[in-house]
């Protein structure tokens, strides 16, 4: 098992790319910007999906499925929406291939041209709101609380595995409500669901905030978001929840008969997280030895490796391992017994470290004699001898897994705290951004001009206006104009 | 609740279309041939997915994800494969929209033309085998046992909800093996997994068989299938499993170092089932009152409806219902208490009948006095009074659900038996096909010419050569040439 991972301190970006490939998470495909999610990477995504899906259902949502293709005219119906997505749309223009007459191979049949071009969905607001028009007649049909798990395509020029790919997997919730208030509550609720998922399952502390006008979703009146801090001091937007006002209802003429007998446009929200979360998970916790996975999302939580020279030793170890495995599975711990005879223990240690298995148990003949096992923690790279008689193994392992989950979260939280700095002058802003990075908490005058100017000069953007922003009189770090509270700036993925 | 379903006996096709829409399963979208799967329909598909996914994992497969787009040149690498799919490919040619200079709206940007056109995957053999080339070096890397849940697009001219749509959802397994034997065993195993799923969960008896050469998957050496019989006497192919030989390995140069030090092409399989299964489920069991769902796939297994006039009655009923609901949920039965005060009981009865809820419980004030409930079975439309003191409600309901599952299966099996006829002359063949339909078990001379001729004359195709075909000397029902066993003919969806 040759890991050969670059060090984070030397080349964070290369470290990330190599880790994604070497840990069997994903790889680039032959199609520009499209990735292949490999089985191990996909099994982590499946665990994310399962938890998110449960949370969506617990908050009253149902899944449905809408078409991959969107007629070009639909995309154009909401002005700022098409403005936001037109530059990155994959367009289907034909529906048939044929053999070239000169025998040169298969070509697109020019006679099979579509009357209207179809866009491969970059997001589904337009096709869904065109459907909602028929689903909503009266207040009795509301709210509509629908989610979709799907692939979407945005033609990105610079792509990176998981973080920015032409095709990605995501879920997109689309809800319709009778009142503005209800839609606002839903928008906030789903941001909170995302934050809870990030913190409880991904062990990823996030700032809950609101996007500035220029960072809003194309077609939204308000965008809430969760923002996380990566180990290189760059921020990553991990999920967004949009209050759409009546914009899509108006674009697609979705009205409902109110209880009082009136006719009104409905109010909408949409919200999504994507395979980008995989990138966040990797970049937040992993180290120079490989992945570090929070136990709640690890496909394998415990790997057991036998250490032996002779066949009889192996048999005796295996017998003990079978006992332990049964105990652990009984309490829902996922265990793998790596009994391959094609690889040495040291090779296996390195491989499971690379793949982020939270706990590794090693058992040799001496352990059998002494009634012990060696337990190694992936996150801290620490080992301990454990006496099997001292405590039921299932209790021991469960409590260690809990401890790891908490500990990974705390570490990330401490890091973020350390990487969040209040700055009060433009020189300080520039200096800190260059030397340390992280979140810069600074006053801003509230204008897009200043925001754009700061972005042009430093590449830092306003990640969000934190929802827990304190009222505090101050002056804009760039323009010197008055401000009533601090916002978070950072360079971002 | 106005059902207004057409009768099967009068217009089976219209009955199907209307049922799919009225039971909130799916509807046509604005994009030709693409459907919207509505939340209720999707929840049935989710149950199917969960069971199939479990079965795939139990047989050692992992999920992964491959790109939506396939470079045109890839599709062309396997000659018979491109031949089979070229006529129905959606083609992406551009990657950007822009505002027309004459202000007429948004147009496809002619400058954003792709160097090589991309095909929206109609199936993923080519993109997956191009990936496998890098995943397989030695016999140690085999077998590769991968499945993908995805959407695919085939540009169909005549579409019908679930049965034939331009975009559909499916799973596609793609495996690679060191030996021919292993790949053949896998092909058969997955056909058996499909058959078991169809019979145990969908309550749908299927014939396990082999496709004739002309009905094989484009690029396969052998195609196994499961075939089901619908209520109108037409057959429906419910799943296929392909032995690909070394065709795709050769097209994409996928070789492996053998244990013995040689270098050989790997052997492949692929297998898939799709949202078409939803069509089969609906058409096999449902009746003129609506859906009939097997309990194992019903999103709601039991609906409870209160019958009351006064508010106090409702409260007392609700208290009893809460007890019953808790008991049922404890044993894993999914229950819905339909306590809406906006609709009358009769309306609710009809709605849940339409939606195929297997059991309906009604409780009124007299039931409370007598300690009874009324239980109605959807499949038989029969009712019984049940004394709550006579047996724990969870036992009663569980056993009724089991009984329904078995009974729906038996009914479908009896129907199929009745609709399978041995025919021995061409006149008999034509007459039976017209008057009765169903499977015609007949001798065939084994040639594609005869097969095509029969298809031209009668629209009947050879659905399969049953795997349990008996050796029996005979003469071809059409050509009179010798034959060694019977095959199944039918008109099919």
UniProtKB/TrEMBL annotation, chains A, B:
Q: Does the keyword Nucleotide-binding apply?
A: yes
EC number per UniProt: 6.1.1.15
Q: Where in the cell is it found?
A: Cytoplasm
Q: Which GO terms describe its biological process?
A: prolyl-tRNA aminoacylation
Q: Which GO terms describe its cellular component?
A: aminoacyl-tRNA synthetase multienzyme complex; cytoplasm
Pfam families in alphabetical order: HGTP_anticodon (PF03129), ProRS-C_1 (PF09180), tRNA-synt_2b (PF00587)
Q: Which UniProt keywords apply?
A: Aminoacyl-tRNA synthetase, ATP-binding, Cytoplasm, Ligase, Nucleotide-binding, Protein biosynthesis
Which residue numbers delimit the Aminoacyl-transfer RNA synthetases class-II family profile domain?
A: 27-294
Q: EC top class, in one word?
A: ligase
Q: Which SUPFAM superfamilies match?
A: C-terminal domain of ProRS (SSF64586), Class II aaRS ABD-related (SSF52954), Class II aaRS and biotin synthetases (SSF55681)
Instruction: Provide the catalytic activity annotation.
Output: tRNA(Pro) + L-proline + ATP = L-prolyl-tRNA(Pro) + AMP + diphosphate
Q: Report the GO molecular function annotations.
A: ATP binding; proline-tRNA ligase activity
Its subunit composition reads:
Homodimer.
Q: What is known of its domains?
A: Consists of three domains: the N-terminal catalytic domain, the anticodon-binding domain and the C-terminal extension.
Q: Which NCBIfam families match?
A: proS_fam_I
Per the record, the similarity remark reads: Belongs to the class-II aminoacyl-tRNA synthetase family. ProS type 3 subfamily.
Alphabetized PANTHER family for the sequence: BIFUNCTIONAL GLUTAMATE_PROLINE--TRNA LIGASE, PROLYL-TRNA SYNTHETASE
Protein purpose: Catalyzes the attachment of proline to tRNA(Pro) in a two-step reaction: proline is first activated by ATP to form Pro-AMP and then transferred to the acceptor end of tRNA(Pro).
Please report the name of this protein according to its UniProt entry: Proline--tRNA ligase
Q: Top-down, what is the taxonomic lineage of the species of origin?
A: Bacteria, Pseudomonadati, Bacteroidota, Cytophagia, Cytophagales
């Amino acid at each position: 098992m040759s890991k050969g991972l670059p060090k984070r301190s030397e080349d964070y970006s290369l470290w990330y790319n190599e880790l994604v490939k070497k840990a069997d998470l994903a790889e680039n495909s032959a199609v520009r910007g499209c990735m292949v999610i490999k089985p191990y990477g996909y099994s982590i995504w499946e665990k994310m999906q399962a938890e998110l899906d449960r949370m969506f259902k617990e908050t009253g949502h149902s899944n449905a499925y809408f078409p991959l293709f969107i007629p070009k005219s639909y995309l154009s119906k909401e002005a700022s929406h098409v403005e936001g997505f037109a530059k990155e749309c994959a367009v289907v223009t034909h529906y048939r291939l044929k053999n070239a007459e000169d025998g040169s191979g298969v070509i697109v049949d020019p006679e099979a041209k579509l009357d209207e071009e179809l866009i491969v969905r970059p997001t589904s607001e337009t096709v869904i709101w065109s459907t909602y028009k028929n689903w909503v007649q009266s207040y009795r049909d509301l709210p509509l609380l629908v989610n979709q798990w799907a692939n979407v395509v945005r033609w990105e020029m610079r792509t990176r595995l998981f973080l920015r790919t032409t095709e990605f997997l995501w879920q997109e919730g689309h809800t319709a409500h009778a009142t503005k208030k209800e839609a606002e509550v839903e928008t906030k609720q789903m941001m909170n669901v995302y934050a809870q998922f990030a913190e409880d399952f991904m062990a990823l502390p996030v700032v809950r905030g609101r996007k500035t006008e220029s960072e809003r979703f194309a077609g939204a009146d308000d965008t809430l978001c969760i923002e996380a801090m990566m180990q290189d001091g760059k921020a990553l937007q991990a999920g967004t929840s949009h209050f759409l006002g009546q914009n899509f209802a108006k674009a697609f003429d979705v009205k409902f008969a109110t209880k009082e007998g009136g006719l009104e446009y409905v109010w909408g929200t949409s919200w999504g997280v994507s395979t980008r979360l995989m990138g966040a998970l990797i970049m937040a916790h992993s180290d120079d030895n490989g992945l570090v996975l929070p136990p709640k999302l690890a496909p394998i939580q415990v790997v057991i490796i036998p250490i032996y020279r002779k066949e009889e030793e192996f048999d005796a170890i295996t017998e003990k391992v079978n006992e332990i495995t049964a105990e652990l599975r009984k309490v829902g711990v996922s265990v793998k017994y790596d009994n391959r005879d094609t690889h040495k223990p040291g090779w296996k240690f390195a491989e499971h470290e690379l793949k982020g298995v939270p706990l590794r148990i090693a058992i040799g003949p001496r352990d059998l004699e002494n009634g012990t096992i060696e337990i190694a923690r992936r996150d801290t790279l620490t080992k301990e001898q454990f006496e099997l008689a001292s405590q039921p193994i299932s209790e021991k392992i469960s409590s260690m897994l809990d401890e790891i989950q908490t500990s990974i979260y705390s570490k990330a939280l401490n890091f973020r705290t350390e990487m969040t700095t209040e700055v009060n002058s433009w020189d300080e802003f520039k200096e800190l951004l260059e030397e340390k990075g992280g979140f810069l908490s600074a006053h801003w005058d509230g204008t897009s001009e200043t925001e754009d100017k700061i972005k042009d000069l430093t590449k830092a953007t306003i990640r969000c206006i934190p929802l827990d922003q304190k009222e505090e009189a101050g002056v804009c770090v760039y323009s010197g104009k008055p401000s009533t509270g601090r916002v978070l700036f950072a360079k971002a993925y």
